[in-house]
Amino acid sequence: MISASKQDDLLVLTLDRPAQRNAMSAALVDALIEAVDSAGRDDAVGAILLTGAGRGFCAGSDLAGLAAMNADEKAGFEAASGEVARMLGLCPKPVVAAAHGFAIGGGLTLATSCDIVVTEPDARWSLPEVPIGLFPAWGLGSVIARVGAPTARRLSWGIDTLDGREAVRIGLADILVEGDVGAKALEVAKQLAALPRRQSVAVKRYFADHVPDAASDERANRLFMDATRTPEAIESFEKFAKRG
Fold this sequence. Notes:
The chain has helices at 26-41, 63-67, 71-90, 106-112, 140-147, 149-156, 164-170, 181-193, 197-207, 214-228, 231-243, and strands at residues 2-7, 10-15, 47-52, 95-99, 102-104, 116-119, 124-126, 175-176. The protein is of the alpha/beta class. It has one domain (2-181): 2-enoyl-CoA Hydratase, Chain A, domain 1, CATH 3.90.226. The longest helix has 20 residues, at 71-90. The protein is globular and about 55 Å long. The chain starts with a strand and ends with a helix. The mean pLDDT is 97.
């Protein structure tokens, strides 16, 4: 689910479900929570690079897995996903996201929760939950922090799919790469890992006040759970359950 490797004082965490477009399952979320928590406490880690195996970064929540969950399990899974996003923002180590291919739904909010996001011109960025009868259950606070409320609201309706150029222009991502996203993200992450450790941590501590709190995700989770009971959501879950 998550593969980890060290390059000197840089920890590379890879979402490793390429056949499922790195969609976030309960097991993947649990593994990511453990990995980020461990990295935050490890003095040998200077920075984290978060990337995805295969054709893209992350396609969001595994809807086939969600379809098989009862209501309490759905709410718990989305709450845990939101915890991951907050952990990335509050982790004392800088976190770089290599968002190649696509960052969709929870993949978008996972990326925007990182400190620096590298992407490519043809990458696809979207929040497609509302058109399939759902609601973005976590991480919208990180989108608002990056692009402002009016743009975040428009994105949340799911009527736009942005390419990487537009994602960088509006602030969803930070660095546009014509070529190997992973190589550029690795370069940036190594620069961050090489910084004086106490000073690097000080930057994360200062900006921790701008990381959305749990209350924001709790409101979103309630709206998500309300949406799951609608005919549109039930139809979508049935469709994804058949695919799974």
